[in-house]
Amino acid sequence: xxxxxxxxxxxxxxxxxxxxxxxxxxxxxxxxQQIRDDGPKSHHIKRGTPTMGGVIxxxxxxxxYLLSHLFTGAALTTSAVLVIALIVCLGxxxxxxxxxxxxxQRSLGLKAREKLLTxxxxxxxxxxxxxxxxxxxxxxxxxxxxxxxxxxxxxxxMVLVILLAILMVLxxxxxxxxxxxxxxxxxxxxVMSFLxxxxxxxxxxxxxxxxxxxxxxxxxxxxxxxxxxxxxxxGSCAGFLWWNASPARIFMGDTxxxxxxxxxxxxxxxxxxxxxxxxxxxLFVIITLSVIIQTSYFKLSGGKRVFKMAPLQHHFELLGxxxxxxxxxxxxVAGLCVAAGLGLFYAQWVVA
Length: 352
Known about the structure:
Layout: H1 2-29, H2 54-72, H3 78-104, H4 112-130, E1 145-147, E2 151-155, H5 157-179, H6 185-206, H7 209-212, H8 223-244, H9 253-270, H10 277-280, H11 282-300, H12 312-318, H13 323-351
Antiparallel strand pairs: 1-2
Helix pairs in contact: 1-2, 1-8, 2-3, 2-8, 2-9, 3-4, 3-9, 4-5, 5-9, 5-11, 6-8, 6-9, 6-13, 8-9
């Protein structure tokens, strides 16, 4: 448990202290955010705000995780290393996207097809590798069984596991990316989701089958170390949020949003809570659905819209809501979704 506290606190301090230094560096280089011309007019004042802050998010989280192991003497685990690799690879894709936006001085970087393809390749590689490396008990980082709040009896097989990994990573990473449209919105929601995974990892560690010895237990590889990684990610996001809250002095960019989404998906898969990611990341799901609904209805109705603008947060901006009001109310929604997810997780254990 000491490792969790060290990991989260260290990641928070590194992110909190290094972000203003990175802001100055980006400002000197002129690496500022490009704003869509068709977006809310109030966003135009944000043009030029330093972006690619996700670099600090990723580095602080990894540093917090590694320093925790250095202080406690605990060994690194395969599960956590694979999730970190997933986060780094997706962060690199996002960094390339952000870099192209800065160089080309426009709001679009990589083409959508290029971004989805590279994300899919990384996710597929993760899904394949995560079903390898069994420990002494035969547990691999990711199970070949479909999981809700724990593994079910539905065996997917290698091909479906890889496809599920691709679906989850694409959904989560792009969901966070769509949510990252207002100052601090995605970062604050991510903190809540990562904290939920800390609690889940600790609970699964305490109720693991080799210790409990009953049917009401969890067969999860490395749950405590995944909790340590979750704490590092939560701490890193919290430290960054200090500078990302309205009025934001830096944006995480696709570098951060793709990495955070990949981290959420990776933790859900390795902690055997795949479908539980839907309520735990409820705000990201709602905002993604708003885009799907808007796009589908626009095509089917010949140009009509359900919302004034998608993603959903911009709809409320055009209704006249203040940015801070939207962010706080959406955080409340995110908190309620996380609470519901944790409630479902605990309820299953109580009923079982």
